[in-house]
Specification:
The complex is a heterodimer of chains A (559) and B (221). Chain A has 20 helices and 22 strands. Chain A is α/β, with parallel strands linked by helices and 559 residues long. The longest helix of chain A has 16 residues. Classes of the chains: A alpha/beta (559), B mainly alpha (221). At the A-B interface, helix 3, helix 4, strand 17 and helix 13 of A face helix 6 and helix 8 of B.
């Protein structure tokens, strides 16, 4: 046995359903106790497979072909059943709602302790300690399935901590979280790392983890492409692995800084702002409103379920040809609001008007011709045998199917090569494009997108951003619900900010991010680009202009 | 919601006694008597709205059976069948509202029923709510693109649009659940329980009173 806590030796794995294709190939890595590892790579790079292997789910929960070995504390993961590993290594899955199966958070936290045969008093003590550590005491008697995504992630993390796991593996933990919960989870992971817990986070949004991690492993096509301290790994051209480096690092590379800055604060501490504006041109839209007439409006719209007020007197207008982003924390009422735009929800008070039609009296099937809506989970829609049919079915049922339009949409969203494949066999990014195509095939004047970038890697996100911008330029009205403020600032000229069912602000992105009170009230988390933008605007070096192009990084040697 | 906080096993035994009694009695008066405690519990626990929704759900079944009975038998039998279904549905409603699946599973486990069996019971009931949520999401996603999944005859043709995504996600859920359970020591021996259930005098009295009432109704009506 060597000093490493985890030893992966020439490990290869092949899923039975993928034939001869290896998901992981010759992985060789040692991880020491107390390391904080960022495991990154584009979709399909093998991140989730390696997470399964490191936590014993492969081979115990998955069939397939294995070569090589993985040992934890010197013991081969194959030599003990999965149920014996959970006090050593704990896992938080990408969708925590599927790993929570008890009726209350208390019982959820107790499950692992009950498996260990703990006494009741010990269980109570540990549950209370972990709940206090994670700040979830107020959730203990709630049903886990009724919590927000952020709260579910904290509970899932609690189930791992409560049994004292010394290695914690998280698979894309930030995918569905709002800004407040992102910051909370980041802080918790930092604290755990300081306490000596080994942390392994699989994530493709590098900016969320790189500054805290002590080590970064880049996976590409099932193999380790790069491995080392984050500042060293980020010095390489990560775009060839379909990863977007954090913005401060990109700027640091252009300026030739060594070591590379991983945070905005580190960058600003080392670079003069005048020098900064020479290489970085921020783009945060400042225009407020489209010039067209109102195409979608709500008037004192209210909606409640039981005692819970989900929407409280919302008054808004969206103009023809405008791109609007609805932003706010989980549970702010964003999705409830957009479900009123096509009649899925009927106003309990007030009214909603779409192209002059009152949604209270217009059937959903009629409104669906005017409002194309793409929901967060593509799997909610898939039921046909091939991509072409899946896209066309809605238009066929509504009697507006046009083969030429189908070809146009297939081409625009690069789905032509996949047209005859099963929708179920597509990647996350491809499924997202498919559902977008299903909405676009009816050529709706208004397109509504609910969290369109969730789970997408950098190339898929870039492609989606480009498509939205093209549609806006073509005059289509776009409404986006998102936690992804970078997307919202890139494609939308006006933000509607929601908190607790109310519309608390309606302004340009620049005006919103410049107002700390509104940012705090809406529980938003400003990303690197906004913090840099504010720093540059604050210095007066960058005028507030209506910039409609991408932000620019000049002279990036890797661009 | 105010409840008597009986032991879950007492709730189960009471529900079983009342179910057996209401299955065996013949007269309409007995069935009406059997309905009264259900209505009292529903009002006392302020579950009128939920009970109303439950009744709307089973109204079609009751109406169907009543119609068949009127056409093939007589009106008295039809009323009897309708009332019997109503009472049995009421017992089921009250039992589910007063007893969480986990409490029942935990209590049975305490009685020596293997954990793998009690967990099967609790997890399957627990996932009913999850699947209800998924069904709503799928229906919304399909209706948003013009597929008519609103209640009605036309929806029947498009039921694959609901059933296939639901089935696919159920498999995914089952896979995740199995992994999550095992990753928290599901199959380890020597489990303990956080919650311990105590059979009290109140439970014995409640079961006894129910048994007496059932016998009384059965013998008199």
């Amino acid at each position: 046995m060597t000093g490493s806590q985890i030893e992966v030796r020439r490990f290869s794995y092949r899923y039975p359903q993928l034939g001869s294709q290896w998901a992981l190939r010759n992985i060789e890595v040692q991880i020491n106790a107390g390391e904080y590892v960022l495991l990154c790579g584009a979709s399909g790079s093998g991140k989730s497979t390696l997470v399964r292997a490191l936590t014993g789910l492969i081979p115990h929960g998955y069939d397939g072909v294995i070569e090589g070995s993985i040992t934890i504390d010197g013991i081969d993961t194959r030599s003990r059943p999965l149920a014996e590993w959970f006090t050593t290594v704990g896992v938080v899955f990408q969708s925590p709602q599927w790993q929570l199966f008890n009726s209350t958070v208390t019982r959820e936290l107790a499950f692992g302790l009950e498996s260990l045969g703990c006494q009741r008093q010990v269980m109570r003590q540990r549950i209370n300690a972990v709940a206090a550590q994670l700040g979830i005491e107020h959730l203990l008697e709630r049903n886990p399935q009724q919590l927000s995504a952020g709260e579910q992630l904290l509970v899932a993390l609690g189930t791992v901590l409560v049994v004292g796991a010394r290695i914690i593996v998280l698979d894309e933990p930030f995918a569905n979280l709002d800004g407040v919960h992102v910051a909370q989870v980041q802080a918790i992971l930092r604290t755990l790392h300081q306490q000596g817990v080994t942390i392994i986070v699989a994530e493709h949004r590098l900016g969320l983890v790189a500054a805290d991690a002590t080590r970064m492993i880049v996976l590409h096509a099932g193999q380790i492409a790069l491995d080392g301290p984050p500042a060293d790994v980020l010095a390489h051209d990560l775009r060839r692995f379909h990863l977007e480096p954090p913005l401060p690092t990109q700027i640091g590379r252009i300026l030739g800084l060594t070591p590379l800055p991983l945070t905005v604060e580190a960058l600003l501490a080392r670079v003069d702002r005048q020098q900064l504006v020479e290489v970085y041109q921020p783009s945060v839209m400042t225009s407020q409103r489209g010039n067209g007439s109102p195409i979608l409006s709500t008037d004192r719209l209210s909606y409640a379920i039981g005692q819970r007020q989900l929407l409280d007197s919302i008054h808004l207008q969206v103009h023809a040809g405008e791109s609007v982003a609805i932003v706010g924390a989980n549970g702010a009422g964003k999705t409830t609001l957009i479900k009123h735009f096509n009649g899925l929800y009927r106003p309990q008070h007030g009214r909603v008007s779409v192209l002059g039609r009152d949604t209270r009296t217009t059937p959903v099937s009629v409104l669906a011709r005017s409002v194309g809506m793409v929901f967060q989970n593509p799997d909610d829609q898939l039921f046909r045998t091939n991509v072409r049919d899946e896209i066309a079915i809605g238009a066929r049922v509504m009697g507006v199917f046009d083969p030429a339009r189908l070809r146009e949409v297939l081409q625009a969203l690069q789905l032509e090569p996949l047209a005859d494949r099963s929708p179920f066999a597509l990647s996350a990014g491809e499924k997202r494009r498919l559902t977008l195509a299903a909405a676009m095939v009816i050529d709706p004047p208004i397109l509504v997108l609910d969290e369109p970038t969730t789970g997408l890697d950098w190339p898929a996100r870039q492609a989606l951003t480009t498509y939205i911008r093209e549609q806006t330029a073509a005059g289509r009205t776009i409404v986006i619900v998102t936690h992804d403020l970078d997307l919202a600032g890139t494609v939308s000229s006006r933000w509607l900010v929601m908190a607790d069912g109310r519309l608390i602000a309606e302004d340009s992105p620049l005006a919103i991010i410049s107002d700390p009170a509104r940012i705090a009230l809406a529980k938003l988390l400003l990303t690197d680009r906004y913090r840099l933008t504010l720093a540059l605007h604050g210095s007066g070096l960058v005028p507030a202009t209506n910039i409609s192009s991408y932000e620019k990084l000049y002279a990036d040697p890797t661009a | 919601m105010p409840t008597l906080q009986l032991d879950p096993r007492a709730n189960m035994v009471i529900a079983l006694i009342w179910t057996v009694a209401m299955t065996m009695v013949e007269s309409i008066a007995a069935l009406i008597l059997g309905l009264i405690p259900i209505i009292v519990i529903v009002y006392w626990s302020r579950q009128q709205q939920a009970f109303g929704r439950w009744l709307r759900l089973i109204a079609v079944i009751i109406a169907g059976w009543v119609m068949i009975a009127i056409l093939t038998l007589d009106w008295q039998t039809a009323v009897q069948i309708g009332l019997r279904i109503l009472v049995l549905a009421g017992i089921f409603f009250v039992f589910l509202r007063t007893t969480s699946p986990e409490d029942l599973g935990g209590a049975l486990q305490q009685m020596g029923v293997p954990f793998s069996i009690t967990f099967l019971l609790t997890a399957s009931l627990q996932y009913v709510g999850v699947m209800e949520h998924r069904i709503r999401q799928i229906i919304d996603a399909q209706r948003a693109r013009g597929i008519p999944l609103e209640p009605g005859w036309r929806a029947l043709r498009f039921y694959p649009a609901l059933l296939i995504p639901l089935l696919a996600q159920s498999f995914i859920a089952a896979e995740h659940l199995a992994a999550a359970m095992e990753a928290r020591g599901f199959s380890r021996l020597g489990r303990t329980q956080l919650v311990v259930y105590h059979w009290r005098y109140l439970d014995t009295i409640a079961v006894g009173v129910t048994l007496l009432a059932a016998l009384l109704i059965w013998s008199q009506c």
